[in-house]
Amino acid sequence: MKSKSPNSEEATLFLFKKLWQYADGMRKWIVLYVAMFVISNIIILLPPLIFGEFIRAIQIDGIGEQNLNYLLWLLFLLVATELVFWVFHGPARIIENIISFKTEVNYRRYLMKGVLGLGLSWHNEHDSGDTIDKVNKACEGLGSFSHNVFQIVQIFVRLIGTSLILMWFSPTIGIAVFIFVLISFVVIFQFDRYLIPQYRRLNEYSNRAIAGVFDALSNITSVKILHIEKPILEGVLSRFNASYPLYKSNIKLNEAKWFTGAIFFQVIAIVPIAFYVVTGVSNGKAVDAGTISTLYLYLSNLIYVYFTFTYLYNDLAIFKNRVLNAKPIEDALESKNVIKRKPAPEWNKLRINDLEFAYDNTKDTPHLSGVNISIPKGSRIAVIGESGSGKTTFLKVIHGLYP
Fold this sequence. Notes:
By secondary structure, this protein is mainly α. 74% of the residues lie in helices and 4% in strands.
């Protein structure tokens, strides 16, 4: 069975696997802070129930000496739940940020060590500015994801917890809301099918633009001597402007996504309350203000979950594409492009016989041909010759810088 392509893998799973991979030695801490986030978000589900009971008690008995202590107790519970929430959430966030920092450093170490170990033939074929941008974007993408795991846990716990509580209030409302939320997410995902490839292409445009900036500034002496500041600037800006049509299309589609989701979840927030009120009146039952308050708070919680999810998933798609941006580098590291030097055996004389070498594997016009040399150990020699005669190439080859 073939493994799923990283491009088609769901963004959250892809990034979490990457986090797990580069958090070697710290994985137990990931399990710990995720568990603490789950507990804290279960606790924060309680305030709507407490506040609903507060309103219900006032509706039934009013406010007087007979129930004042009970009402104050309910208000105290609201504060207490917030304190208990932070007992778990605060330390978990500290651990999460520490793991995020160390994971990003581990990933950056892997990419930098790998790039430094690649042969010069690979570097000759890849723009340095583009490589730098790929490494930076990939590390920032993984770091940003690992910094926001708490939001993913928050979304899942609040979605499932709120749905279960609504089912407890009214199975009809709970099931209907849960199904409608799932339908809404499916609709929203249809936008992402078009947005995510656009993010990937925008990253590619950005790579080329940043590479142009790097090339211009790293050769600033030549630019100034030749007085080519204006064409260089125009060339760099043209690379940035090349992405504008796609960027414009992307922001329009993204706003359409937000509008669609907002309408869906406003309906989710209003219809269940209307259903509860109409059903109560039709059956001749008193409408409980506390229940309406609780329903509204939990349904508002679903709206919060939606907007958090939509905003976060948009970011997750960007983070994933930034990490995938470095895939050509990771592919090169997994291939035979990495130079692996073996310890040199004991020797007394270095002998090279009939050395031939050509760049880009082109044997028709070799850059070195018929080189024969014998160098005794401990001797000092000078390699001299005209410019372009192959001195640097010769030294690179005998140092094993070309695979």
